[in-house]
Amino acid sequence: MLESLPSPLLALLLAVPAALHGVAALTAHRSPRDTAWWRAEAASAVGAGVGALLLVLALVSGTTVAAGLRLDAPGATVLLLVGFVGWVIVRFSHRYLQGERGERRYLALMSATLAAVSLVLVADHLLLLAAAWIGTSLTLHRLLRFYAERPAARMAAHKKFLAGRIADAALLGAIAVLSAAYGTLSLDAMLTAAAAQGVPPLAQAGLLLLVVTALLKCAQMPLHGWLIQVMEAPTPVSALLHAGVVNLGGFVLIRFAPMLAEAMPAQVLLAVVATATVVMATLVMGTRISVKVMLAWSTVAQMGFMLLQVALGLPAMALLHLVAHSLYKAHAFLSAGGVAQRRQALRLTAPAVPPSATRWALAAMASVAAVVGTGLATGTRCPRPRPRWPVPCWPPRCRRCCWQRARVAPALGVAAGWLAGHALASAVVTPVAAAPAGLVIVVAVALAALFVLQALIALRPAAAWVRRLHPWAYGGFHLDEHVSAWLFARWPIPPAPAALPPSLATEGARA
After folding, report:
1. Taking the CB of residue 92, how many other CB atoms lie within 10 A of it?
2. Which of 132, 161, 181, 336 lies 20 to 30 Å from 367, alpha-carbon distance?
3. What would the pLDDT profile of 61-103 be if each residue is shown by its tens digit?
4. Interatomic CA distance for residues 79 and 257, integer angstroms
5. Residues 329-382: pLDDT tens digits?
6. Residue 261 near residue 254 (C-beta atoms within 8 A)
7. Closest C-alpha to 242, from 251, 230, 232
8. Could you tell me how far CA 263 lies from the centroid of its own chain?
9. Do the beta carbons of residue 195 and residue 167 sit within 8 Å?
């Protein structure tokens, strides 16, 4: 199909989402308010539609390169995801930012960020990829400083800026080394050469730098603190960051997965740092009570899981993880305020008519209650002796087995959905060689130890060793404090903008 499509037309189709977001960004200050918001929403909606069309073309005809742009199934999948999530976030922002000072500046920066992300997803030329990825970081930095009068916002944005510039230097170094190793800046030509010639030591050094870039961009330890502390930004910015921008490191590594599978040093570095981050962030997350802070630590851990999947030679699972995590985190951040409001409202008065989501939940609970009630009313005593680990019989003829079946069914449904999603992702992503058995064993032991530790904490929360561990985990094991002190000693936090009202500027300086 794509053979009959001219290369300029294909390149134009690939560039449509980024171009539409760019137009929305450039015209945000010169259009009426509602028109500017409508244009941004339409750009995201059209981007999602183009992503769906490109996904169909990629599944039918495979990978195609035209004018420095790349069409493949993983890129089209994430482009569709970004279009949909971007549309939801822009629509939410339309109401959330109404009447806010700097609303048009926010809209222009949000559209520019979405344009840069869309360009990363379709870039084949590595310099274009680097320019778009760096542009994403710079526009996001200004969004994180939307409330620049707040000292906490300036501190978190500054830490993000420093980590981003280190990552950008590693990215440019990786591109220079990889281009010297293969004599090309095209990702498609580089993957073809690696499949035919292997990955020489010089290219492995470039992949090592690329892994460093992804670790920094995905907020892995030790430069992970900025992702926890960017909660002073508007809620839609947090949703965009956690649902889209922070995932780009994993997406780029998914594209480089065939080369990464043959670069042992890069695999080991990625697996070790990602595993350590998963263990640390999971333990810290269990000590938090703030919804947004808990979600932020969850993002750090989930990014570690995604990068770990890439390191173990499972790019299809990493792509599925990326899509599922983006959808979950966008919903979690955008609904966090509503959850608190609904809980407060329930304390005051019970709603006369439950919302639609509650109706569906009540219907599901009624269905389960009907199944269990039928078993309790008509069932007989179970003829089998009670086992140590309950295993429901089928068909569930007794009371105990009906109840156990009702509890097991949701878990089986989630497992079936995940397996179906993994089957679809495996059809989209080209498989790569499995990781060395020794690396898999080390990672498995670390994750098993984490599971055992969490189980012991849940079983004995009042134990003395748990009480001693809790302050360390609550403080993030004090890793971020030492890293921040080292960074700020060399690159101090910039002061509040001079254009702020005198009271706010004075408050920021005093804090």
Report:
1. 18
2. 336
3. 878 888 889 888 888 999 999 999 999 998 898 888 887 788 8
4. 19
5. 888 888 866 554 555 554 455 444 444 444 444 454 555 455 445 444 444 444
6. no
7. 230
8. 25
9. no
